[in-house]
Amino acid sequence: MDNIVSTASPRVTTGPLPSSQKIYVTPQAAPDLSVPLREIELSSPSEPRVRVYDTTGPYTDPAVTIDVRQGLARARRAWVLARCRFPTRRARCVALPASRSPSSNGRAQA
After folding, report:
1. Model-level pTM greater than 0.85?
2. Phi/psi at 63 (nearest 5 deg)?
3. What DSSP designation does 86 have?
4. Which among 78, 79, 25 is positioned nearest to 54, based on CA atoms?
5. Do the Cβ atoms of 100 and 90 come closer than 8 Å?
6. Residues 38, 49: contact at Cβ < 8 Å?
7. How many Cβ atoms are within 10 Å of 60's Cβ, its own excluded?
8. Cβ within 8 Å of residue 69, ≥6 positions away
9. Taking the mean position of all CA atoms in its chain, how far away is CA 45?
């Protein structure tokens, strides 16, 4: 089967969600953290907004520019390295067997 190559940019849904606002709160016990919450408007204007934990990541933050080719920012890298629990590793090259090399198109070599 022929490979289909698209020149169109990948599309990711981004931007604010309706009837809500993304906010960040900082816990007293961890002033270096920002916890994402979503304030949701209820149908009655007299009711206070409901706050829920926001799992959407940076995709719904209007202050963040999303580029799928660049990937997400490594927001926790400094925090992880400061904990010194995870050693850093250098990338290593892995040789493919001849039967799996790109030049063989995935077919076994005779």
Report:
1. no
2. -85, -5
3. S
4. 25
5. no
6. no
7. 20
8. 10
9. 34
